Amino acid sequence: MATLVAYVRGGDVYVSKGSAETRLTTGGGWSRPQWAPNGKSIALLKGGQLWTMKADGSAKRRVTTRAAAGASWSPDGRFLAFASLSCSGGPGVYKISATAVNAVPEVVFPSYCRGEELPAEPAPRTAPTGSLSERLRADDAVAWSPDGTKVAFRGGDCESIYDACLTVGTIATGGEKTVAAYGGGSRQNSGFAVLPTWRRDGAKLAWTAYQKGETPADDQPVHVVEYDIATGATRTVGASQDRELAYVDSARAVATGTHRNGSWVMVVNLTTGARTPFHQGSQPSVQPKR
Length: 290
Hints:
This protein is mostly beta strands. The protein has one helix at 132-136, and strands at residues 5-9, 12-16, 21-23, 30-35, 41-46, 49-54, 61-62, 72-73, 79-85, 91-97, 106-109, 143-144, 150-154, 162-170, 176-184, 190-198, 204-212, 220-228, 234-237, 243-247, 252-259, 262-269, 275-280, 282-286. The longest helix has 5 residues, at 132-136.
């Protein structure tokens, strides 16, 4: 790899470009690392709350006491978006200063919660257990678009129609667009779409999906979907059980896959589908090139 990949193994964060790796945290309980746009900091979760640290693992700082899911940096690196309980009682998207001390979160979605008093801070959620699909189903990690105008997130207004859905929200207008949906309406399936991630040019959005169809032939185990922003076309990338994709560039990505009966970070060729084991671990994030 030409740039560092951060990933989680045994509840701690590691970084690596090749065979050698560096451990950035100790003690376990860390998850969902996300590189800042300048490649100098990493946002991550500890005990269900949002933290940041420098790229070498130093200067760890809790950003908010509000229960949070996987965060995403604004393109200018000034803010972090994260999901937490909204005024509607469902998952909402907030933003908070990445550097200010005692910063107060601001509501981004749902837009009708903007200006409302923030709901009481919910208790941090415990790490889910069970099968792979059960652990992923309620992951509320969000993704801020590279141009700064949109946020992709699980849920949204579409939950009034569907049992599960994924939304792309436009920050300026508060408008929401459903890009994946399961159950409810006319859909005779169940499943989920979580962990959205943008390609760096903003032309593609990928997420982790699972579907239980009307018949066994329609079932789709955990997999990665890539969505074309311009056309709405979708395709499956990688292999069955691949999840948590992060783009390296337009031709390659890293994703968590199953290898040697465990979770490994795999390098995925987005054209051929070829997959190469990188390191044992999960939840990869790619350091932006500087």
